[in-house]
Amino acid sequence: MFKRVRGTQDILPQDSLSWQEIEEVSRRIFSLYGYQEIRTPILERVSLFNHSLGEATEIIQKQMFELVHGKDHLVLRPEGTAAVVRAYLENNLDKKSQTSKLFYFGPMFRAERPQKGRLRQFHHLGIEALGSLSPYLDVEVISLGARLLKELCISGYHIYINSLGCQDDKARLAKALRRELKSRLPKLCPDCQNRYHRNIFRILDCKNSGCQKEVGSLELKQGRLCSACTQHFRAVIEGLESIGVSYQLSPYLVRGLDYYTRTVFEFRHASLGAQDALGAGGRYDNLIGLLGGKELPAIGFAFGIERILLARGRKAAPKNQSLVFVITLGKLAEKKGVKLLHSLRANNIPADTDYAGHSLKGKMRQANELGVRFCIIVGENELAKGMVSLKDMATGEQNEIKQDEIVDYLKSKVT
Ligand code: AMP
Question: 118 CB less than 6 Å from ligand 1?
Protein backbone atom coordinates (compact mmCIF):
# COMPACT_ATOMS: atom_id res chain seq x y z
CA MET A 1 0.00 0.00 0.00
CA PHE A 2 1.24 3.50 -0.75
CA LYS A 3 1.83 5.80 2.19
CA ARG A 4 1.73 9.56 2.30
CA VAL A 5 5.03 11.42 2.32
CA ARG A 6 6.43 11.92 5.85
CA GLY A 7 5.54 15.32 7.21
CA THR A 8 2.37 15.63 5.11
CA GLN A 9 -1.22 15.04 6.22
CA ASP A 10 -4.47 13.82 4.70
CA ILE A 11 -7.35 16.01 5.76
CA LEU A 12 -10.25 13.59 6.08
CA PRO A 13 -13.95 14.51 5.81
CA GLN A 14 -14.46 14.60 9.59
CA ASP A 15 -11.56 17.07 9.89
CA SER A 16 -12.27 19.15 6.82
CA LEU A 17 -15.27 20.76 8.52
CA SER A 18 -12.90 22.37 11.05
CA TRP A 19 -10.72 23.58 8.20
CA GLN A 20 -13.74 25.10 6.48
CA GLU A 21 -14.76 26.79 9.71
CA ILE A 22 -11.31 28.34 10.13
CA GLU A 23 -11.37 29.59 6.56
CA GLU A 24 -14.89 30.96 6.87
CA VAL A 25 -14.16 32.79 10.12
CA SER A 26 -10.90 34.15 8.68
CA ARG A 27 -12.59 35.37 5.50
CA ARG A 28 -15.22 37.16 7.58
CA ILE A 29 -12.65 38.86 9.80
CA PHE A 30 -10.30 39.72 6.93
CA SER A 31 -13.10 41.40 5.04
CA LEU A 32 -14.23 43.20 8.21
CA TYR A 33 -10.79 44.83 8.25
CA GLY A 34 -10.80 45.56 4.50
CA TYR A 35 -8.52 42.78 3.19
CA GLN A 36 -9.09 41.08 -0.18
CA GLU A 37 -8.04 37.63 -1.25
CA ILE A 38 -5.03 36.93 -3.44
CA ARG A 39 -4.11 33.47 -4.74
CA THR A 40 -0.60 32.94 -5.99
CA PRO A 41 0.94 29.78 -7.50
CA ILE A 42 2.54 27.11 -5.34
CA LEU A 43 5.43 26.96 -7.80
CA GLU A 44 7.78 29.92 -7.82
CA ARG A 45 11.32 30.49 -8.96
CA VAL A 46 14.02 29.63 -6.45
CA SER A 47 15.63 33.00 -7.09
CA LEU A 48 12.60 34.82 -5.63
CA PHE A 49 13.23 33.34 -2.21
CA ASN A 50 17.02 33.35 -2.42
CA HIS A 51 16.78 37.03 -3.14
CA SER A 52 14.34 37.93 -0.37
CA LEU A 53 14.64 35.61 2.64
CA GLY A 54 18.42 35.84 2.93
CA GLU A 55 21.08 33.33 1.87
CA ALA A 56 21.99 32.48 5.46
CA THR A 57 18.47 31.72 6.69
CA GLU A 58 17.46 28.20 7.61
CA ILE A 59 14.80 28.07 4.89
CA ILE A 60 17.28 28.87 2.15
CA GLN A 61 20.09 26.78 3.64
CA LYS A 62 18.21 23.54 4.08
CA GLN A 63 14.43 23.69 3.79
CA MET A 64 13.59 24.39 0.16
CA PHE A 65 11.88 21.69 -1.90
CA GLU A 66 13.52 22.53 -5.21
CA LEU A 67 12.60 21.22 -8.63
CA VAL A 68 14.78 21.48 -11.68
CA HIS A 69 12.89 21.13 -14.94
CA GLY A 70 14.83 21.90 -18.09
CA LYS A 71 16.19 25.37 -17.60
CA ASP A 72 13.69 26.20 -14.88
CA HIS A 73 14.88 26.14 -11.30
CA LEU A 74 11.67 26.11 -9.29
CA VAL A 75 10.61 25.59 -5.70
CA LEU A 76 7.45 24.65 -3.81
CA ARG A 77 6.94 27.95 -2.03
CA PRO A 78 8.20 27.88 1.56
CA GLU A 79 6.26 31.00 2.61
CA GLY A 80 3.74 33.49 1.26
CA THR A 81 5.14 36.99 1.70
CA ALA A 82 7.76 36.98 -1.06
CA ALA A 83 5.26 35.40 -3.46
CA VAL A 84 2.59 38.00 -2.65
CA VAL A 85 5.09 40.83 -3.14
CA ARG A 86 6.11 39.28 -6.47
CA ALA A 87 2.46 39.15 -7.58
CA TYR A 88 1.80 42.66 -6.25
CA LEU A 89 4.62 44.07 -8.38
CA GLU A 90 4.09 41.88 -11.44
CA ASN A 91 0.42 42.87 -11.60
CA ASN A 92 1.05 46.56 -10.88
CA LEU A 93 -1.04 46.59 -7.73
CA ASP A 94 1.46 49.10 -6.36
CA LYS A 95 0.30 51.57 -9.03
CA LYS A 96 -3.40 51.00 -8.47
CA SER A 97 -3.82 52.12 -4.90
CA GLN A 98 -1.92 53.67 -2.07
CA THR A 99 -2.26 50.70 0.25
CA SER A 100 -3.07 47.15 -0.83
CA LYS A 101 -4.53 44.93 1.85
CA LEU A 102 -4.39 41.29 0.84
CA PHE A 103 -5.05 37.91 2.44
CA TYR A 104 -4.29 34.37 1.40
CA PHE A 105 -4.67 30.72 2.38
CA GLY A 106 -2.59 27.87 1.09
CA PRO A 107 -0.01 25.16 1.48
CA MET A 108 3.64 25.96 2.20
CA PHE A 109 6.52 23.51 1.98
CA ARG A 110 9.63 23.22 4.11
CA ALA A 111 11.97 20.25 4.30
CA GLU A 112 12.06 20.18 8.09
CA ARG A 113 12.36 17.24 10.46
CA PRO A 114 8.70 16.45 11.18
CA GLN A 115 7.45 16.51 14.76
CA LYS A 116 4.27 17.57 16.57
CA GLY A 117 3.16 20.85 15.00
CA ARG A 118 5.97 20.75 12.45
CA LEU A 119 5.18 19.44 9.00
CA ARG A 120 6.82 19.50 5.61
CA GLN A 121 3.58 20.56 3.95
CA PHE A 122 1.57 22.87 6.19
CA HIS A 123 -0.93 25.64 5.59
CA HIS A 124 -0.75 29.34 6.16
CA LEU A 125 -3.48 31.87 6.49
CA GLY A 126 -1.91 35.24 6.16
CA ILE A 127 -2.31 38.90 5.41
CA GLU A 128 -0.05 41.48 3.81
CA ALA A 129 -0.70 45.23 3.98
CA LEU A 130 1.53 46.93 1.46
CA GLY A 131 2.32 50.59 0.89
CA SER A 132 2.17 52.27 4.29
CA LEU A 133 4.56 52.99 7.12
CA SER A 134 1.84 54.06 9.53
CA PRO A 135 2.36 52.50 12.98
CA TYR A 136 -1.41 52.26 13.18
CA LEU A 137 -1.30 49.74 10.37
CA ASP A 138 0.95 47.63 12.62
CA VAL A 139 -1.70 48.04 15.32
CA GLU A 140 -4.39 46.94 12.86
CA VAL A 141 -2.45 43.87 11.74
CA ILE A 142 -1.63 42.69 15.27
CA SER A 143 -5.14 43.38 16.57
CA LEU A 144 -6.61 41.57 13.57
CA GLY A 145 -4.58 38.51 14.60
CA ALA A 146 -5.95 38.76 18.14
CA ARG A 147 -9.51 39.18 16.85
CA LEU A 148 -9.11 36.17 14.60
CA LEU A 149 -8.01 33.97 17.51
CA LYS A 150 -10.90 35.27 19.60
CA GLU A 151 -13.39 34.38 16.87
CA LEU A 152 -11.78 30.94 16.61
CA CYS A 153 -12.30 30.51 20.39
CA ILE A 154 -8.57 30.34 21.10
CA SER A 155 -7.42 31.85 24.38
CA GLY A 156 -4.33 31.28 26.49
CA TYR A 157 -1.90 32.68 23.93
CA HIS A 158 0.54 35.58 24.34
CA ILE A 159 1.66 38.20 21.87
CA TYR A 160 5.40 38.94 21.91
CA ILE A 161 6.57 42.06 20.18
CA ASN A 162 9.84 43.79 19.39
CA SER A 163 11.29 46.32 17.00
CA LEU A 164 14.36 45.42 14.96
CA GLY A 165 14.67 48.98 13.69
CA CYS A 166 15.42 50.03 10.13
CA GLN A 167 18.23 48.59 7.99
CA ASP A 168 20.74 51.01 9.54
CA ASP A 169 19.67 50.04 13.05
CA LYS A 170 19.93 46.38 12.12
CA ALA A 171 23.42 46.87 10.71
CA ARG A 172 24.47 48.65 13.89
CA LEU A 173 22.98 45.93 16.07
CA ALA A 174 24.73 43.22 14.03
CA LYS A 175 28.03 45.02 14.50
CA ALA A 176 27.47 45.45 18.25
CA LEU A 177 26.49 41.81 18.59
CA ARG A 178 29.55 40.66 16.72
CA ARG A 179 31.74 42.73 19.01
CA GLU A 180 30.01 41.66 22.24
CA LEU A 181 29.72 38.00 21.38
CA LYS A 182 33.20 37.47 19.99
CA SER A 183 34.79 36.61 23.33
CA ARG A 184 31.79 34.47 24.34
CA LEU A 185 31.77 32.42 21.17
CA PRO A 186 33.17 29.23 22.80
CA LYS A 187 30.28 29.29 25.29
CA LEU A 188 27.62 29.29 22.54
CA CYS A 189 26.05 26.14 21.07
CA PRO A 190 27.49 24.86 17.75
CA ASP A 191 24.46 26.25 15.84
CA CYS A 192 25.04 29.70 17.29
CA GLN A 193 28.75 29.54 16.55
CA ASN A 194 27.67 29.05 12.97
CA ARG A 195 25.03 31.78 13.24
CA TYR A 196 27.69 34.19 14.48
CA HIS A 197 29.14 34.19 10.98
CA ARG A 198 26.01 33.75 8.88
CA ASN A 199 22.89 35.03 10.68
CA ILE A 200 23.90 36.68 13.92
CA PHE A 201 20.41 37.85 14.99
CA ARG A 202 19.27 34.26 15.39
CA ILE A 203 21.62 33.89 18.37
CA LEU A 204 19.26 36.20 20.24
CA ASP A 205 16.31 33.80 20.06
CA CYS A 206 18.23 30.53 20.43
CA LYS A 207 16.40 28.16 22.78
CA ASN A 208 19.63 26.69 24.24
CA SER A 209 19.87 27.75 27.90
CA GLY A 210 23.64 28.40 27.71
CA CYS A 211 23.13 30.76 24.75
CA GLN A 212 20.19 32.42 26.49
CA LYS A 213 22.39 33.09 29.52
CA GLU A 214 25.06 34.73 27.37
CA VAL A 215 22.47 36.74 25.45
CA GLY A 216 20.77 37.76 28.71
CA SER A 217 23.96 39.37 29.93
CA LEU A 218 24.27 41.60 26.86
CA GLU A 219 23.20 45.21 27.24
CA LEU A 220 21.08 45.61 24.11
CA LYS A 221 17.87 47.09 25.31
CA GLN A 222 18.86 50.73 25.48
CA GLY A 223 19.24 53.11 22.59
CA ARG A 224 19.71 50.70 19.74
CA LEU A 225 16.93 52.17 17.60
CA CYS A 226 17.16 55.48 15.74
CA SER A 227 14.69 58.14 16.78
CA ALA A 228 12.26 57.50 13.88
CA CYS A 229 12.12 53.78 14.73
CA THR A 230 11.80 54.53 18.45
CA GLN A 231 8.84 56.80 17.74
CA HIS A 232 7.29 54.25 15.41
CA PHE A 233 7.54 51.50 18.00
CA ARG A 234 6.16 53.74 20.74
CA ALA A 235 3.14 54.57 18.57
CA VAL A 236 2.55 50.85 17.93
CA ILE A 237 2.67 50.05 21.64
CA GLU A 238 0.43 52.97 22.56
CA GLY A 239 -2.00 52.04 19.79
CA LEU A 240 -2.24 48.45 21.04
CA GLU A 241 -2.80 49.69 24.58
CA SER A 242 -5.50 52.11 23.45
CA ILE A 243 -7.58 49.22 22.13
CA GLY A 244 -6.79 46.79 24.93
CA VAL A 245 -4.55 44.33 23.05
CA SER A 246 -2.19 42.75 25.60
CA TYR A 247 1.40 42.15 24.58
CA GLN A 248 4.78 41.36 26.07
CA LEU A 249 7.88 43.22 24.99
CA SER A 250 10.45 40.73 23.86
CA PRO A 251 13.79 42.41 23.09
CA TYR A 252 15.27 39.15 21.81
CA LEU A 253 12.53 38.36 19.32
CA VAL A 254 14.21 38.65 15.91
CA ARG A 255 12.36 36.31 13.50
CA GLY A 256 14.34 34.21 11.07
CA LEU A 257 14.20 36.07 7.80
CA ASP A 258 16.40 38.87 6.53
CA TYR A 259 13.56 40.99 5.20
CA TYR A 260 12.05 41.94 8.54
CA THR A 261 12.51 45.50 9.76
CA ARG A 262 10.98 47.50 12.62
CA THR A 263 7.99 45.78 14.26
CA VAL A 264 8.15 42.00 14.60
CA PHE A 265 5.73 39.90 16.61
CA GLU A 266 4.76 36.36 17.45
CA PHE A 267 1.60 34.76 18.84
CA ARG A 268 2.61 31.85 21.09
CA HIS A 269 0.46 29.23 22.75
CA ALA A 270 1.84 27.21 25.66
CA SER A 271 -0.24 24.13 24.78
CA LEU A 272 1.74 23.67 21.56
CA GLY A 273 4.93 22.52 23.29
CA ALA A 274 8.25 23.05 21.54
CA GLN A 275 6.62 24.45 18.38
CA ASP A 276 4.69 27.08 20.26
CA ALA A 277 4.29 29.76 17.56
CA LEU A 278 0.71 29.96 16.36
CA GLY A 279 1.47 32.81 14.03
CA ALA A 280 4.03 35.48 13.42
CA GLY A 281 4.86 38.44 11.28
CA GLY A 282 6.31 41.86 11.03
CA ARG A 283 7.28 44.79 8.87
CA TYR A 284 9.32 44.37 5.75
CA ASP A 285 9.93 47.93 4.66
CA ASN A 286 12.70 47.12 2.17
CA LEU A 287 11.42 43.97 0.49
CA ILE A 288 9.29 45.62 -2.20
CA GLY A 289 12.29 47.72 -3.24
CA LEU A 290 14.55 44.68 -3.09
CA LEU A 291 12.26 42.79 -5.47
CA GLY A 292 12.38 45.59 -8.02
CA GLY A 293 9.53 47.87 -6.94
CA LYS A 294 9.52 51.34 -5.47
CA GLU A 295 10.74 51.67 -1.89
CA LEU A 296 7.39 50.91 -0.28
CA PRO A 297 6.96 49.76 3.32
CA ALA A 298 4.71 46.84 4.25
CA ILE A 299 3.68 44.54 7.07
CA GLY A 300 2.03 41.13 7.34
CA PHE A 301 1.57 37.96 9.30
CA ALA A 302 1.00 34.25 8.78
CA PHE A 303 -0.70 31.77 11.07
CA GLY A 304 -0.25 28.02 10.76
CA ILE A 305 -3.67 26.43 10.28
CA GLU A 306 -2.49 23.07 11.70
CA ARG A 307 -1.28 24.83 14.85
CA ILE A 308 -4.57 26.72 15.17
CA LEU A 309 -6.30 23.33 15.04
CA LEU A 310 -3.97 21.94 17.70
CA ALA A 311 -4.61 24.93 19.96
CA ARG A 312 -8.39 24.58 19.53
CA GLY A 313 -8.32 20.89 20.42
CA ARG A 314 -10.33 18.22 18.65
CA LYS A 315 -13.99 19.06 18.27
CA ALA A 316 -16.68 16.50 17.56
CA ALA A 317 -17.74 16.60 13.92
CA PRO A 318 -21.09 18.36 13.76
CA LYS A 319 -24.08 16.22 12.78
CA ASN A 320 -25.59 16.73 9.38
CA GLN A 321 -28.81 18.20 10.70
CA SER A 322 -30.07 19.61 7.43
CA LEU A 323 -29.68 16.41 5.38
CA VAL A 324 -32.70 14.41 4.21
CA PHE A 325 -32.06 10.70 3.68
CA VAL A 326 -34.13 8.90 1.06
CA ILE A 327 -34.78 5.23 1.79
CA THR A 328 -36.24 3.19 -1.04
CA LEU A 329 -37.45 -0.40 -0.84
CA GLY A 330 -37.67 -2.35 -4.10
CA LYS A 331 -36.82 -1.68 -7.73
CA LEU A 332 -39.75 0.61 -8.54
CA ALA A 333 -39.21 2.66 -5.42
CA GLU A 334 -35.52 2.98 -6.29
CA LYS A 335 -36.47 4.61 -9.62
CA LYS A 336 -38.85 6.95 -7.83
CA GLY A 337 -36.00 7.73 -5.42
CA VAL A 338 -33.85 9.08 -8.29
CA LYS A 339 -36.54 11.66 -9.13
CA LEU A 340 -37.19 12.50 -5.51
CA LEU A 341 -33.51 13.13 -4.78
CA HIS A 342 -33.28 15.26 -7.91
CA SER A 343 -36.22 17.46 -6.94
CA LEU A 344 -35.08 17.81 -3.31
CA ARG A 345 -31.68 19.03 -4.47
CA ALA A 346 -33.23 21.21 -7.18
CA ASN A 347 -35.02 22.93 -4.29
CA ASN A 348 -31.75 23.30 -2.37
CA ILE A 349 -32.62 20.67 0.20
CA PRO A 350 -29.45 18.66 0.99
CA ALA A 351 -30.34 15.03 0.30
CA ASP A 352 -28.64 11.66 0.00
CA THR A 353 -29.47 7.98 -0.28
CA ASP A 354 -27.92 4.55 0.10
CA TYR A 355 -26.21 3.21 -3.01
CA ALA A 356 -24.86 0.06 -1.40
CA GLY A 357 -28.11 -1.93 -1.46
CA HIS A 358 -28.47 -2.25 2.32
CA SER A 359 -31.57 -3.67 4.00
CA LEU A 360 -34.06 -1.28 5.59
CA LYS A 361 -32.26 -1.77 8.92
CA GLY A 362 -28.90 -1.02 7.30
CA LYS A 363 -30.26 2.08 5.60
CA MET A 364 -31.69 3.35 8.89
CA ARG A 365 -28.34 2.74 10.58
CA GLN A 366 -26.63 4.75 7.86
CA ALA A 367 -29.12 7.60 8.36
CA ASN A 368 -28.42 7.55 12.10
CA GLU A 369 -24.67 7.60 11.56
CA LEU A 370 -25.03 10.60 9.27
CA GLY A 371 -27.11 12.29 11.96
CA VAL A 372 -29.84 13.31 9.49
CA ARG A 373 -32.97 15.12 10.59
CA PHE A 374 -35.50 13.38 8.30
CA CYS A 375 -35.80 10.11 6.42
CA ILE A 376 -38.17 9.75 3.51
CA ILE A 377 -39.21 6.13 3.14
CA VAL A 378 -40.59 4.97 -0.20
CA GLY A 379 -41.87 1.35 -0.29
CA GLU A 380 -44.29 -0.54 -2.54
CA ASN A 381 -47.26 0.42 -0.35
CA GLU A 382 -46.47 4.11 -0.31
CA LEU A 383 -45.83 4.07 -4.07
CA ALA A 384 -49.23 2.52 -4.80
CA LYS A 385 -50.96 5.23 -2.74
CA GLY A 386 -48.94 8.13 -4.22
CA MET A 387 -47.54 8.76 -0.75
CA VAL A 388 -44.18 8.66 1.06
CA SER A 389 -43.45 8.16 4.75
CA LEU A 390 -41.55 10.90 6.50
CA LYS A 391 -39.71 10.02 9.68
CA ASP A 392 -38.55 12.81 11.98
CA MET A 393 -35.35 11.36 13.42
CA ALA A 394 -35.34 13.76 16.38
CA THR A 395 -38.79 12.76 17.67
CA GLY A 396 -39.17 9.32 16.05
CA GLU A 397 -42.57 10.39 14.68
CA GLN A 398 -43.56 8.99 11.27
CA ASN A 399 -46.30 10.35 8.96
CA GLU A 400 -47.46 9.73 5.44
CA ILE A 401 -47.33 12.72 3.07
CA LYS A 402 -48.40 13.01 -0.57
CA GLN A 403 -45.49 12.50 -2.96
CA ASP A 404 -46.10 15.81 -4.71
CA GLU A 405 -46.21 17.74 -1.42
CA ILE A 406 -43.13 16.35 0.27
CA VAL A 407 -40.63 18.77 -1.28
CA ASP A 408 -42.63 21.87 -0.31
CA TYR A 409 -43.18 20.46 3.14
CA LEU A 410 -39.45 19.88 3.71
CA LYS A 411 -38.51 23.21 2.17
CA SER A 412 -40.20 24.95 5.07
CA LYS A 413 -38.44 22.67 7.56
CA VAL A 414 -34.82 22.45 6.46
CA THR A 415 -33.84 25.39 4.24
P1 AMP B 1 6.86 31.45 9.68
O2 AMP B 1 6.66 31.72 8.23
O3 AMP B 1 7.97 30.48 9.94
O4 AMP B 1 6.92 32.68 10.51
O5 AMP B 1 5.57 30.68 10.14
C6 AMP B 1 4.36 31.29 10.47
C7 AMP B 1 3.51 30.25 11.16
O8 AMP B 1 3.38 29.11 10.31
C9 AMP B 1 4.15 29.70 12.42
O10 AMP B 1 3.85 30.50 13.51
C11 AMP B 1 3.50 28.34 12.52
O12 AMP B 1 2.20 28.45 13.07
C13 AMP B 1 3.35 27.93 11.08
N14 AMP B 1 4.46 27.05 10.65
C15 AMP B 1 5.69 27.40 10.25
N16 AMP B 1 6.42 26.32 9.91
C17 AMP B 1 5.63 25.25 10.09
C18 AMP B 1 5.79 23.84 9.91
N19 AMP B 1 6.91 23.31 9.44
N20 AMP B 1 4.74 23.03 10.19
C21 AMP B 1 3.58 23.54 10.65
N22 AMP B 1 3.37 24.87 10.82
C23 AMP B 1 4.36 25.71 10.56
Answer: yes
CA angle 89, 285, 91 (to 5 degrees): 10
Alpha carbon distances (Å) from 165 to 106, 120, 172, 283, 285: 30, 32, 10, 10, 10
Q: Please tell me the pTM assigned to this model.
A: 0.90
160 C-beta closer than 6 A to ligand 1: no
Helical H runs in 152-189?
Answer: 167-182
CATH topology of domain 13-166+226-312: BirA Bifunctional Protein; domain 2 (3.30.930)
Compute the distance between CA of residue 87 and CA of residue 98 in angstroms, rounded to an integer: 16
Other Cβ atoms less than 10 A from the Cβ of 386: the count is 9
What is the atom index within ligand 1 of the atom nearest the CA of 307?
A: 12
Fold of the domain spanning 324-410: Rossmann fold (3.40.50)
- The residue whose CA is least distant from atom 12 of ligand 1 is 304
Q: How far is the CA of 279 from the centre of ligand 1 (A)?
A: 7
Q: Pocket of ligand 1, candidates 123, 275, 310: which has the most ligand atoms within 8 Å of its Cβ, to mutate?
A: 275
pLDDT tens for each residue of 279-296: 999 999 999 999 999 999
CA distance 78 to 233: 29
189-219 residue pLDDT tens: 998 998 888 888 889 888 888 988 888 888 7
Q: What is the residue extent of each domain of the chain?
A: 13-166+226-312, 324-410
3-state secondary structure 48-71: HHHHHHCCCCHHHHHHCEEEEECC
